[in-house]
Design goal:
Layout lengths: L5 E7 L2 E12 L13 E12 L4 E9 L2 E3 L5 H14 L1
Antiparallel strand pairs: 1-2, 2-3, 3-4, 4-5
Length: 89
């Protein structure tokens, strides 16, 4: 995975994802240690889950300068993805 500034997309642990990265840590970025707002580069994160073989997807977790929903229910996938992104930053 090549890291950049802007929006990136990928797939991990059975989820599709989209993240918007800032150039440096921000007050509204997702903190990689606590997974709460403050001090990270991920300004927006959306996790999608596939629904059957038809190819349709649904949003299951959304962070956009703060958690909107889904963090606790999908915490293992969020933690895995943020660690993976942080290793590449």
């Amino acid at each position: 995975m090549r890291t950049q500034v802007g929006t990136i997309r990928g797939q991990t642990s059975g989820y599709l994802w989209e993240a918007r990265l800032s150039q440096g840590p921000t007050s509204y970025g997702l903190n990689p240690s606590t997974l709460y707002k403050g001090g990270g580069r991920v300004a927006r994160l959306v996790l999608y889950q596939r629904l059957g073989a038809g190819g349709s997807v649904r949003k299951v977790a959304v962070y956009d300068r703060g958690w909107r929903y889904g963090r606790l229910r999908h915490l293992p996938a969020v933690r895995h993805l943020i660690r993976r992104l942080e290793r590449c930053l």
